[in-house]
Amino acid sequence: MSTEPTSPDAASETGRRSGPIASLLQWIEGLSEPQFAYLLLGPVFLILSFVAFWPLASTFEMSLHANSLTEPLGEFVGLDQYVRILTGEKVLIRPLFDLDYPLQSAIVVTFLFTVVTVVFETIIGFGQALVLDRSFRGRRFVRVAIILPWAVPIVIQGMIFYLMFDPSVGFASQPLQQLGILADQPLNDSASSLLIVIVADIWKTSAFMALLILAGLQSVDRDLYDVAKVAGASRWQRFRQVTLPLILPAVLVAVLFRTIGAMRVYGLVVASDAGCSTVPTLSCLVVETLLSTNQYATAAAVAFITAVIIGVFVSIYIVRYAQEVV
Amino acid sequence: MSTSTPDTEDSGRIERWVTRAIYRPERLYRVLFYVAVFGFLFGTLFPFYWLFVIAVTPRELLGTVGLTPQAFHWQSFVEVFEVVPFHMYVANSIMLAFGTTAIVLVVASLAGYVFGRLEFPGRRPLLLVVLAISYFPPAAFFVPLYRLFAGNISLFGISSPNVLNTPAALLPPFTALFMPLAIFILTTFYAQIPDGLEDAARIEGTTRLGALVRVIIPLSAPGVATVAVLTFIYVYNEFFFSFLMTTGEYTDWSPLVYGIRNYQTQYTQLYNLMGAASLIGVLPVAILVAFAQEKIVSGLTAGALKE
């Protein structure tokens, strides 16, 4: 399907028009398939360059320079920013990694948040997907109810959990304080706030997991279940031997997406009023470095460290578990 | 089960029930299934119920608010628009979501068509480059874009215009955030259209672009609709750039984020209005989810499984 000669009919079709448009169409028609592909990708990559590649390159360039309040770029220092941040020599607004204050260091907080939310979201999402995979009366309603939290704006998600856990109106803080789970002012305490933010994320994002896993479930060939049934497999055996292996790729992809998302968490921390000083995630660290200390270059370096951590995590994951699906 | 001592009526009944459950497990599964359904419904819907309780509770009763409303103060749903022009923030969000959706649809359709239907050297690397954009935290895009939109970057002596507080400062970062997913979903949709249809059109004598417009685009309409719904929801949900690129005044195109945040930061005692504002803010996406649930399900699944 590469360089086909223009057929007579096509010529007559373009021939009906005249002038530059017709000759442009003629020219496009004569392009080979790769040329045509690059022509169409032109505007796409032009826009992506402006909104994504240029900002990223520019941020990276900034991270190779010293902080400067007067000039757009300070003195060129190479990877010095990275070295000083990673060795802990550069004092950030919150430490990147400090085992003496685990819940104040960005990597520990982000890692805890990511692992706990992804594990619970996978389990709950799996359950929701199994429910949605069956047909029963009222399934449309149940499906809307399960998807709805995923569509709730982050700022409202934060507000909901603020209204539940703020001691002046929330019903949830008093009993949990008596059980010793939450502190007196839960949204000013790092451990309590992290717990609240985790619960809020599980509430909103399990549905996303459920939808991705549901896709895997629905692509399983129903005949396989019949075969297994005839062969005398119990319900549990059918699930364990047929369903699980077949939908594992879908689950792994869902986990991958959620991991990337969870490691970038920012809005929920602000919107739940816990705040970046109480729950300092990696994204929080970038924004706070930027806005409260105006150290643009340091913030840029932290942003790239975050991206590299995500990239490394994702690569390890892809290599170990998800090779066949990527 | 401690049914070994059947000395009462009750344990006898339990024993019978257990025996039946063992020999006819279908019944037990049915019960478990409905328990699970109601558990999930309770978990997902309870927070909305709580917003409702807070919203209809009069201010003087907020200190003792319980799990059921003590009074119904419906005026909250009117006051919420009077204290802060909340409807203007919602309108800004909706317009920004429509704008981003239009840009994303045009660009991602082109890219999806090329990646899904054409063979060319560099196809896979280019697709991976698009995916890699989504590894970066939004913060990595922020500083250069902010300086550009504030008019602080000059090229060949011409400095960029100051477009902060206009849609021009919000649409580009929104586009960058949601373009990768849109491209992946549309790549899948375009790839699923059988080659035969396009070939038939070409043999009939249609030009390449003619085949694209008359065959491929109509057939990919469901995919395009899905991407439109997802992009709209994502932009309406967005926090990072909505929060950092605008001043918080509705006249400056500040979206929903500030409509809600204004209550949390300026009117810190008006919890009932916070609840009312949150419920109203969810309404547009709730309606969208109710009408477009199939699209959402098929879109998320297509985009994910392609990768």
From TrEMBL, chain A:
Localization terms from the record: Cell membrane
Main subcellular location of this protein, as a coarse class: membrane
Keyword Transcription regulation belongs to the record: no
Keyword Transport belongs to the record: yes
A Pfam family matched in the record: BPD_transp_1
Gene3D superfamilies: MetI-like
Coiled coil segments of this chain: none
Residues in ABC transmembrane type-1 domain copies: 107-317
Membrane-spanning parts: 36-57, 106-132, 144-165, 194-215, 242-260, 296-319
Keywords: Cell membrane, Membrane, Transmembrane, Transmembrane helix, Transport
Membrane topology reported for the UniProt record: Multi-pass membrane protein
One GO term describing the cellular component: plasma membrane
Gene Ontology annotations of biological process type: transmembrane transport
Protein family according to the UniProt entry: Belongs to the binding-protein-dependent transport system permease family.
Protein name: Sugar ABC transporter permease
UniProtKB/TrEMBL annotation, chain B:
Domain annotation ABC transmembrane type-1: ranges: 90-292
Topology relative to the membrane: Multi-pass membrane protein
CDD domains, sorted: TM_PBP2 (cd06261)
InterPro entries: MetI-like, MetI-like_sf
Keyword Thylakoid: no
Regions crossing the membrane: 31-52, 94-115, 127-149, 169-191, 212-236, 270-291
Record key words, sorted: Cell membrane, Membrane, Transmembrane, Transmembrane helix, Transport
Gene3D superfamilies: MetI-like
Swiss-Prot/TrEMBL GO biological process terms: transmembrane transport
GO cellular component, one term: plasma membrane
Keyword Transmembrane helix: yes
Protein's cellular compartments: Cell membrane
Family listed: Belongs to the binding-protein-dependent transport system permease family.
Protein name (record): Carbohydrate ABC transporter permease
